[in-house]
């Protein structure tokens, strides 16, 4: 529906989206979308819990993952997580664990009273725009949640919407285990994509230095606009996710970022 404080669709379409939510077992809103669904501005740990609880109780949706959450607060001492990428040069990707360079994912499988059962995973932020990460995250979550449920007790497979009993800890929820694997795959694939992107853009730069005659015949303003457009298109193409060449990291992720209970 939207992100970063603005709606991508017509406002009169939002009620139609909300009407679909009760038919889902799993939703993956970003922070802004979670605010739209709950009617609560998420500015603290307390109202994050409130927002997820409202979503559970209003829409009766059992599994919720809220992505790209940024909350003010003191530095965290834990390693982190979700579409995890930090600034990279052409040869390596460095990770800076300062709070402002982290993204967080919060998940919850509701209890029998529809209260939230929250867990949290953090990841380093990557200074790059990627197209299609939401689709990739959603597709992997569906598969990994099913895998985690079928690795759990046989009784859970027969339970409506795969909702674990109330005595199951946040970190032991199938949704939590699925999130760890998905973020492991996302982190590695996007990290490798970013390195490949930087290498590709560096090759373009070298080619342009040797042959920049393509737009030489244009007036200065048109030439400048053409060069800027070419740079944008190249950057977008170079940032396409290298999924196929890194498929082994999707099939066999190495979990680096662990979930932890969120009781604040």
From TrEMBL:
Residues 6-74 form the Pyridoxamine kinase/Phosphomethylpyrimidine kinase domain. It is an enzyme of class 2 (transferase). It comes from the Eukaryota. Coiled coil: none annotated. This is pyridoxal kinase. InterPro entries: PM/HMP-P_kinase-1, PyrdxlKinase, Ribokinase-like. Pfam families: Phos_pyr_kin. Belongs to the pyridoxine kinase family. Its EC number is 2.7.1.35. GO terms for biological process: pyridoxal 5'-phosphate salvage. Keywords: ATP-binding, Kinase, Nucleotide-binding, Transferase. GO terms for molecular function: ATP binding; pyridoxal kinase activity.
């Amino acid at each position: 529906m939207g992100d970063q404080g603005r709606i991508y669709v017509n406002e009169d379409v939002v009620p139609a989206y909300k009407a679909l939510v009760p038919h889902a077992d799993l939703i993956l809103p970003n922070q802004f979308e979670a605010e739209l669904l709950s009617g609560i501005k998420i500015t603290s740990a307390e109202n994050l819990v409130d927002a997820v609880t409202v979503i559970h109780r209003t829409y009766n949706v059992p599994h919720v993952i809220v992505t790209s959450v940024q909350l003010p607060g003191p530095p965290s001492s834990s390693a982190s997580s979700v579409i995890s990428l930090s600034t990279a040069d052409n040869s390596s990707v460095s990770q800076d664990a300062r709070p402002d360079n982290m993204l967080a994912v919060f998940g919850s499988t509701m209890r029998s009273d529809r209260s939230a059962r929250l867990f949290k995973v953090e990841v380093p932020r990557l200074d790059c725009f990627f197209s299609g990460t939401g689709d990739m995250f959603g597709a992997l979550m569906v598969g990994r949640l099913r895998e985690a449920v079928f690795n759990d007790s046989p009784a859970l497979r027969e339970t409506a919407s795969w909702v674990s009993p109330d005595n199951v800890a946040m970190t032991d929820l199938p949704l939590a285990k699925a999130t760890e694997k998905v973020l492991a795959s996302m982190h590695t694939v996007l990290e490798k994509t970013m390195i490949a992107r930087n290498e590709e853009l560096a090759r373009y730069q070298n080619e342009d230095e040797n042959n920049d005659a393509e737009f030489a015949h244009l007036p200065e303003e048109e030439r400048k606009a053409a060069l800027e457009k070419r740079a944008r298109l190249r950057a977008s193409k170079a940032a396409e996710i290298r999924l196929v060449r890194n498929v082994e990291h999707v099939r066999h992720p190495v979990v680096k970022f662990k979930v932890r209970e969120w009781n604040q």
